[in-house]
Design goal:
heterodimer, A: about 450 residues, alpha+beta, Cytochrome Bc1 Complex, Chain A, domain 1, 18 helices, about 45% helix, B: alpha+beta, 3 domains, seven-stranded mixed sheet, six-stranded mixed sheet
């Protein structure tokens, strides 16, 4: 107990200290996090922060689109909804209602690599999200009717986000073309059918395998006392039985030997759009950090090379967006841009490729690398302002890289990238043979613009 | 009696905890339901106070000291003129002026400004809506760079030159962006709804600059707007972060002390037009797989005494996933990914509206449920527990919003802009708590005004026109905003 108190004191003393060295503009993040593992394998990360009466709870499960199998697409996403469809204790819709009544925020998000559930509540309501999250990890009450509602919500979300938006399908088409391994390749239409085919038994099976304490990380950040909070976490979670470890995912992609290209028509799109992607590396690798800098130089902010060239100088496009994704398997480095009226796809592509060649040929300038590092530093630190973001960040780093403390060391990795590193990764990844291009053209105008 | 009612009937703070612990430890599969541990106490909140100063030229300075635990800052120059000051034949002039601030000053080119801001890892943006009475220039970054960022912000606010070539580039870029926006069904719904409520004589009837007034705008127009409105006595500079007024004031004096004073023309608030009979405005978007629905009418000004009653009513009806619309249209019917309502008020009356995106085939069902909920909030008093929950949630989310220093600063700015009482935010929880079920019903009957209800639908006209016609007269438009004559549509 004495020992615990001492830990607590230390925690209170240095909550969040960020040291800066003005000369280089480089910034250090120091967030005092504490790690605990429960008997059932649930990994717990806590960070005290008393500056506002708020606590953020994050449960992140080691399951995402990459865990889905053929014919069972969009299961991970379906669960993001089913987890709100009730348990033995909680009626459908009641989860949201209980948190909502405290003025709190509740939501979930899923991608290829993980599923995140979170609540932000006034500090005096800490018990509620702990109860609710442990309750649904213990078991869901999935009936055919609840499954149907969850399925409809997923399909409606897809209609809203993808099918009813211009260029909505383009991202999915890119994913399908870019990857060979099913883990990251699948999405889109396949998923809608997978959802319709889902039986109650499939659902129970998926839940049991992946929604297990030993397949999750809990992060708690905010206004609480660590010792007390840990006791509560133990009370709610520790007796939930562990499950056999799910088998690991094989992310291996065969080397791409030639450019891949597809042109699709889109009835809602008014102008052609070009997406260019290169298969690259998982997150938190040396090449990942170098590609982040490369991307900043190329396409972040109004002083970036592509903005100046394509938007300001040549007036070919309205804006340029993209970057290196952060994934556990090979992420893509991508660029997306929508053409202005009357401009040609090949002109835009040529202008972009010219900038790639320049990156391969000559190192970026000192000003450019400093600018890129400072932008990345500034954005990272600003983003940590909310306790929720800190909780998601440490939990995600724990589950992706087995290193929640990466929140403190990440900027060092960014700041150690050299100009030569940037040139090296440009040559390594931005090769025409490693390139995948999806061009979206307005449906009526296909004949005029597709070429 | 559902579980909710049980909780509310019985639950005192942490009453349920013992029960939960007992059930979980002893009988995890007991037949009896576990009651969730909800604290019914109202969280006590103390708000930090800002420090203020006024320069000799009239510039007001507001600093919220050290509230941010990160070594960062957010700085905002609020110019007390915006789209409401646009001449009627130059809609978008204030917005245009703001957009061009970053595109060149006497001493910096557009590229230099971008390079310097980005080199400091900072952000800098300027904005004014067509219906706003302010223009904001906002910057954020690391506290150690505050002085250097202030220098750039001052430069773009005081010395913009609106270069002709940048002006032309901005025009073509904006026209092209507008073309893209027209493909977004929500943009089309918002545009039509604003026009229906405010007409074409009020600034709020426009959500984007008309292309013709954009095209004819010259550098001289922007310079004129800038010189008339960007004045120290017509501005407030606000800073929040790891900074003190004592530290920053001398720097502000140095950068802005010699900014010449002058009198800006008063912003005139045009009266909103009389509201017309209910009608349905259908924007045809062939191939649309969803229908975007927006139903509503005129609301209140920001300072209206009905503000808190409407705030609570809006919460009950549709602000969040716990509100009626979401529970009905999404959770119960599965029509949509979400259904909400919202309201806003400025110096002129804002709107109250409900909205959703539903799949085309259930447009009729969704209309039925919307009308049901709109009538219900008018006809029936909200039950005591539903009211309590809504109020409790409003106060809780107010407490949560204090996590962000920018929100605190925004609250202070709002209090100043609308001359609200000095203790306005301190007494916010109390004002919410005072609202009764009778207040809610009274404002529902007043502002959910079915005799003037305007409905906008964006979707595939061929599939939804007849469905909508059951709810009133339908007027159809294309995605460019042009009226489709009845004879054309068949």
């Amino acid at each position: 107990m004495k020992h615990l108190n001492k830990t607590l004191q230390t925690l209170l003393l240095c909550l969040l200290v960020v040291a800066t060295t003005p000369a280089q503009q480089q910034t250090k993040v120091r967030i005092d996090l504490r790690e605990t593992k429960l008997k059932n394998g649930l990994r717990v990360v806590t960070v005290e922060d008393h500056h506002a009466p708020v606590v953020s709870l994050v449960l992140i499960y080691n399951v995402g689109g990459a865990n889905e199998r053929k014919g069972r697409g969009e299961f991970a996403h379906l669960f993001e909804h089913l987890m709100f469809q009730g348990t033995r204790n909680i009626e459908p819709g009641e989860f949201n209602k209980l948190v909502g009544q405290t003025g709190g925020i509740v939501n979930a998000t899923v991608n290829d690599d993980r599923t995140v559930y979170f609540e932000v509540v006034p500090a005096d309501q800490l018990e509620l999200p702990l109860f609710l999250e442990s309750d649904r990890l213990r078991g869901l009450s999935i009936t055919q009717q609840r499954l149907d509602i969850g399925r409809k919500a997923v399909q409606e979300e897809r209609r809203m986000r993808i099918l009813n938006q211009p260029y909505g399908r383009s991202g999915e088409v890119m994913t399908e073309l870019l990857y060979d391994n099913f883990a990251y390749k699948h999405g889109g239409m396949e998923s809608m059918e997978g959802l319709d085919a889902a039986s109650l038994e499939d659902i129970q099976d998926f839940f049991k395998t992946y929604y297990a304490p030993n397949n999750a990380v809990l992060a708690l950040v905010g206004d609480f006392k660590t010792v007390e909070a840990l006791a509560k976490i133990r009370k709610y979670f520790e007796d939930i039985p562990r499950q056999p470890e799910p088998s690991p995912i094989d992310f291996t992609e065969a080397e791409q030997k030639a450019e891949r290209r597809k042109t699709i028509e889109d009835a809602l799109a008014p102008l052609p759009q070009v997406r260019i992607a290169f298969k690259a590396v998982p997150g938190n690798t040396p090449d990942f950090y170098a590609l982040q800098i490369l991307s900043a130089v190329l396409q972040d902010g109004q002083s970036s090379r592509l903005y100046q060239k394509l938007v300001k100088e040549k007036e070919l496009v309205n804006g340029v967006g993209g970057g290196i994704g952060e994934k556990r398997g090979p992420a893509a480095f991508s660029i997306t841009t929508t053409l202005r009226q009357g401009k040609k796809v090949e002109t835009v592509e040529a202008a972009i490729y010219e900038e790639f060649e320049r990156l391969k040929r000559e190192p970026i300038t000192n000003l450019e690398i400093e600018k890129a590092k400072n932008s990345i530093n500034g954005a990272f630190i600003n983003n940590l302002e909310r306790s929720l973001i800190r909780a998601i960040t440490v939990a995600q780093y724990a589950i992706f890289y087995d290193d929640p403390n990466l929140i403190n060391t990440r900027l060092d990795k960014t700041n150690s990238v050299t100009r030569e590193d940037v040139r090296r990764v440009a040559n390594k990844y931005l090769k025409p043979t490693n390139r995948t291009v999806v061009v979206t053209v307005p449906k009526a105008a296909t004949d005029k613009t597709a070429k | 009696m559902n579980l909710q009612t049980k909780i509310r009937a019985k639950c005192k703070a942490f009453y349920a905890l013992a029960l939960v612990a007992l059930l979980l430890s002893a009988h995890p599969i007991a037949a009896q339901k576990v009651v969730p541990p909800v604290s019914k106490e109202t969280l006590k909140v103390t708000l930090p106070k800002a420090k203020e100063a006024t320069l000799k030229n009239g510039l007001r300075v507001v600093v919220l000291e050290g509230y941010d635990q990160l070594p960062t800052f957010t700085m905002q120059m609020v110019i007390l003129s915006g789209g409401l000051s646009d001449p009627p034949d130059s809609r978008g002039l204030a917005s245009f002026t703001a957009s061009l601030l970053r595109e060149g000053t006497r001493t910096r080119t557009s590229l230099e400004i971008a390079e310097q801001v980005e080199s400091l890892g900072a952000t800098l943006s300027a904005n004014s809506d067509l219906s706003s009475f302010t223009t904001t220039v906002t910057s954020s970054g690391l506290a150690q760079n505050l002085g250097r960022v202030l220098d750039i912000l001052t430069d773009v606010v005081r010395e913009p030159v609106f270069p002709a070539d940048e002006l032309e580039k901005h025009k073509t870029r904006t026209v092209s962006q507008l073309q893209l926006q027209r493909t977004n069904p929500n943009f089309l719904a918002g545009e039509r709804f604003s026009r229906v409520i405010y007409g074409d004589q009020h600034p709020a009837g426009f959500v984007s600059s008309p292309v013709d007034s954009l095209k004819k705008t010259t550098s001289a127009d922007l310079k004129k707007f800038h010189s008339e409105h960007y004045l120290p006595s017509n501005a407030i500079l606000t800073v929040v972060g790891q900074v003190t007024l004592k530290e920053i004031l001398p720097k502000i004096e140095r950068e802005l002390g010699d900014w010449k004073r002058g009198d800006a023309p008063k912003t005139e608030t045009r009266a909103v037009p009389n509201q017309s009979a209910p009608k349905i405005y259908l924007i045809d978007r062939p191939g649309s797989v969803q229908t975007v629905l927006q139903l509503g009418n005129l609301g209140i000004t920001r300072t209206d005494p009905d503000y808190f009653a409407l705030l609570v009513m809006d919460k009950v009806v549709g602000t969040s996933p716990t509100s009626r619309l979401f529970r009905n249209l999404r959770e119960d019917k599965g029509y949509t990914y979400g259904a909400y309502s919202n309201f806003g008020g400025s110096k002129f009356r804002g709107t109250w509206a409900a909205n959703s995106e539903v799949r085309t085939a259930v447009t009729e069902g969704a209309m039925k449920e919307f009308m049901f909920e709109l009538k219900r909030i008018r006809d029936e008093r909200v039950a005591p527990d539903e009211l309590d929950n809504a109020k409790h949630a409003l106060v809780g989310s107010f407490a949560l919003s204090l996590e962000r220093p920018q929100t605190l600063l925004q609250n202070i700015i709002t209090q100043k802009l609308y001359d609200l009482p000095a203790d306005y935010w301190d007494t916010y929880p109390q004002k919410v708590a005072e609202i009764t079920a009778a207040d809610v019903q009274r404002v529902a009957q007043k502002y959910v005004d079915l005799s003037h209800l305007q409905i906008v639908a964006v979707g595939d006209a061929a599939q939804i026109r007849d469905v909508l016609a059951k709810y009133g007269t339908v007027e159809a438009y294309d995605s460019e905003g042009k009226l489709i004559k009845a004879t054309d549509s068949k």
